[in-house]
Write a structure and sequence with these properties.
Elements: E1 2-9, H1 18-31, E2 48-50, E3 59-68, H2 75-83, E4 89-96, E5 108-115, H3 121-128, E6 134-139, E7 142-147, E8 152-160, E9 163-171, H4 179-190, E10 197-206
Parallel strand pairs: 3-10
Antiparallel strand pairs: 1-3, 1-4, 2-3, 5-9, 5-10, 6-7, 8-9
Length: about 210
């Protein structure tokens, strides 16, 4: 039986890496004494699949993970699993998934980037009017210049207390656009001082129609 869990990762644990997040779930499952399904081979491991790895230094309100178990879990076991998660991680909800994983439909990710540097809405609109935004993008294969403009669906500035929230919908899956590369592109376009970023939070994982993946 497979379940898809929606979970949060707050700012207290935003520097916990993707690999360590995987270990958090493995340990919570062991503490809750759940019947996890394991892979075959010489080094079996629990069958855990995340929709999209979260970058270090980014919190999230809505992450997705699919976990396979040897049998359906009762409500008490699900509650025990939730209670076994360490502080900073929270299981928000879950659902059974007997079909193909919906994660393949993932195309976009929504972020809220809190900045204290002043940016005008007009400047942001001019930035989005560019046909090409060429940036040096790093990957496992090395570095290459990439046009990131098609990887930006939308940008919106929202005033918030003594700062501004930049709401961004960026390409996810393969390829993907990280918020830090977007911020670098904005800095280059503005040609001013570096943007002062207070926080970056991922708020949703979306399909091609802008709907939540799960």
């Amino acid at each position: 039986m497979k379940y898809i869990y929606t979970f949060s990762k707050n700012r207290r644990v935003q520097y916990v890496s993707h690999l360590d997040t995987l270990r958090v779930f493995e340990r919570a499952m062991r503490r809750a004494k759940l019947p996890a399904s394991y892979s075959q081979g010489f080094h079996p491991h629990p069958l855990i699949t995340f929709a999209q790895p979260l970058g270090v230094g980014i919190s999230s309100k809505s992450e997705l993970v699919e976990i396979a178990f040897d049998r359906p879990l009762c409500v008490g076991e699900q509650e025990r699993f939730s209670q076994s998660m360490p502080e900073g991680f929270g299981i928000l909800n879950y659902c059974e998934n007997e079909k193909k994983s919906p994660f393949a439909a993932l195309e976009w990710a929504a972020y809220e980037i809190c900045i204290t540097t002043a940016i005008s809405q007009k400047r942001l609109e001019d930035f989005m009017k560019q046909e090409e935004i060429l940036m040096l993008k790093r990957s496992k294969k090395g570095e290459k210049q990439v046009n990131i403009r098609p990887m930006i669906q939308s940008l919106e500035l929202v005033p918030w207390e003594n700062a501004t929230v930049l709401k961004a919908v960026l390409k996810a899956g393969q390829p993907s656009l990280k918020p830090e590369l977007l911020l670098q592109a904005l800095e280059q376009y503005i040609q001013g001082s570096a943007l002062e970023v207070q926080s970056v939070c991922r708020t949703a994982l979306l399909d091609g129609n802008g709907q939540p993946v799960a």
